[in-house]
Amino acid sequence: MAQSGRTLIEGLATLMLVALSALAAAPTFHDMRGEAAVSSLDRRLRALVFRCRATALMRGRAVALVFDHQPDGEWHIFVAEDGDNDGVLQRDIDSGVDPIVTRPLRIAAGEASPGILTEVRVPDPLGRGALRGDLSDPVRAGRGDKISFSPAGTATPASVYLTDHRRCMRVMRVYGATARARSMAWRVGWPTWRVIGV
Predict the structure, then answer these.
(1) Exposure string (b/e) for 53-66, b if CB count within 10 Å is 16 or more?
(2) I need a surface site. Which of 128, 137, 144, 184 has the fewest CB within 10 A?
């Protein structure tokens, strides 16, 4: 009788160790929420890229997706349209010559937003070692924070890095020749980036 009691206790202890191991390996609710927020932002930005490209083609004028990083850390992301046939320029946006044609997407500091994790080694999405360049600049679109789309269906080649500021990232890449966007995901612990479904 005493032998079967010990077996039950050993069985329960083993079951508890297996459950604790599974719990430790599973992502936390906070991690899953962060990944979902980054994924949602990525989808919204790809929809804006599609809208910019379509608008530029239909209206026969340049359109830009503008990333405006505020001093308080908030991001304002909006679409502006060329009003004087010289491309979308910041001075023309500021003066109202190039009108803002969407309500700005406002992202508060600390939320899933454009950004690059700096506390860990982030691999280069192209597979060339670690991500290089200015890690405080998550919007890499030529010399500014603006992705321009032409009436010919081309765009500024760009990479926009997104993060939950904890452990996951995405990169939305806009290809210049086609003005189409594709995304890749990376999480702390992954050796490489993974392509997101088209």
Answers:
(1) bebbbeeebbbbbb
(2) 128
